Amino acid sequence: MVILLLLLVQAGVIARDQVLVTHAAREAVRAAAVDADPAAMERAARAAGPLVPSRLTVESRGRGAPGSRVTVEVTYRAPTRVPLIGRLVDDVDLHAVATMRVER
């Protein structure tokens, strides 16, 4: 019973991290849509929530002139840290992709 409870807690932590990765992708693509500097996109993704920056990667493609679309993909290697269960399950790779029209 305890292992099942810990497994559910770990699943909840992973689900929370996926929501945070999705939010980071949205923040990053918004920054990329209004600022041509790739560092702005990186800063926005890293500031979006309590994700460990060293486990986060941000990639973009397609940014062109205003009116074009830019796509950002955020990948996060989520640690499994719940006692007992975290040791049985390897870290999980989470992904989120967001696209937005370039404004300037």
Furnish the topology, listing elements before pairings.
Blueprint (H helix, E strand, L loop, with lengths): L1 H33 L3 H10 L8 E6 L7 E10 L6 H4 L3 E10 L3
Helix pairs in contact: 1-2
Model description:
By secondary structure, the protein is α+β, with helices and mostly antiparallel strands. The protein has one domain. The chain contains three helices and three strands. The protein has a three-stranded antiparallel sheet with strand order 1-2-3, covered by helices on one side. Helix 1 packs antiparallel against helix 2. The longest helix has 33 residues.
Question: Can I get a quick summary?
Answer:
By secondary structure, this protein is α+β, with helices and mostly antiparallel strands. It contains three helices and three strands. It has one domain (2-101).
Keywords:
3 helices; alpha+beta; 104 residues; three-stranded antiparallel β-sheet
Structural class: alpha+beta
Number of separate helices: 3
Radius of gyration: 16 Å
User: Could you name the ranges where pLDDT drops below 50 across 5 or more consecutive residues?
Assistant: none
SSE order: HHEEHE
- Main β-sheet: number of strands, strand sense, barrel status? 3 strands, antiparallel
Domain module tally: 1
β-sheet strand percentage: 25-35%
Name the shape in a single word: elongated
Distance between the termini: 55 Å
If strands are numbered along the chain, what order do they take across the biggest sheet? 1-2-3
**Mean pLDDT reading:** 93
DSSP strand count: 3
Oligomer: single chain
| Helix content range | 40-55%
